[in-house]
Structure prediction request, 475 residues.
Amino acid sequence: METENIEQAIRKILSEELGNQTSTTGSAAAGSNGIFSTVNEAIAATKAAQIDYADQPISVRNKVIEAIREGFRPYIQEMAERIHEETGMGTVSAKVAKLNNALYNTPGTEILQPEAETGDGGLVMYEYAPFGVIGAVGPSTNPSETVIANAIMMLAGGNTLFFGAHPGAKDITRWTIEKLNEFVAKETGLHNLVVSLEKPSIESVQEVMKHPDVAMLSITGGPAVVHQALISGKKAVGAGAGNPPAMVDATANVALAARNIVDSAAFDNNILCTAEKEVIVEAPVKDELIKLMQAEGAILITDSADIDKLTKMTIGPKGDPDRKFVGKDATFILDEAGIRYTGKPTLIILEAAKDHPLVTTEMLMPILPIVTCPTFDAVLATATEVEGGLHHTASIHSENLPHINKAAHRLNTSIFVVNGPTYCGTGVATNGAHSGASALTIATPTGEGTATSKTYTRRRRLNSPEGFSLRTWEA
Prediction:
């Protein structure tokens, strides 16, 4: 009975995360550019495609990835606008940058080079082989970006994938998958490398997780859906929640820190899971930091009644951020709270204690609380506490190398950014060009960290005792 109650609770949370639509079955024409009416039809089609695809040379995988990159190139602005229109979150300019990042900074087959060891004992070689069909679930915060990045990583490894769309972004997700299949088919003649459903639902996600022909899972979403994947019995890559602190110590270049923090926390209205969710600052530079953050476009809220109003308005009765305000503009939130402002602030800042709900909650909106501590050790201890052991993302602004080293070690996060905006940890930079490989799936709960093509492959070993070596020869 207890197990049944746990499953019912998970199902309830999943329904809230993924929407309450019911699954549908029917005899609609199957396989229109990868879109099917049932899970069984979709997985059967992509399994058949994977068996053929796995036998293709690496040059074909590269051709598939190039078709995706070149095919979407003319559509980036349109996609960004469609994502914004359907989800109502973030900004179009940020989505353009994220789409560019997913398309052109996601590593492909080039990082799947074989490894070899030779010596008197012969040859040992390791190569990266496909798992098969991968079941993926994406968020509404990065719908097309996750489809594209997942497809490039998984297809590079010789896999195919079923992609479960978030109901809050089902239209743009379907459009993206249909276009992707269109581009790939035109250039290679291959079909159904990426598949999905006409109508996404919680039931379909659960069916995919249990399907015998799905070899592994890759889940980008809330804690409940990640947990469901982890108890599925399949290998799972889980990208979970985060609450990234930005630390600023007394040695920091405060002007640079203010610019980076405001720019990054306001980027796409803070819906990135890597975005700064709270600032922990050492007391000697607190006033200067706040002043300079205001100069960079943040608005400081000092009235306790206004802060209480913001808190009650944006955090729901269950302690979660109210979806009405997730990813919305700072001006929208201010207007709804009846707080006056001038100009067009991009970020709302306020001072708070470390146990304030706005500090301890992953808000996913442009509200950034600032916690002041007397020493660096207190800054680090507070940052560790409010990060909550999620080990997701953290950043530090400091010119003190031991402070940087100690913080990176102590927080032990998948992404750690030094003297920069945290979005650079995902590969995004202010001009849309890369500052490192794209990282849209940050698998902290399951330990893979920033996912790449290698994440979605099996590392296979070949031994040949009489193997090849240029360094030695024994007749």
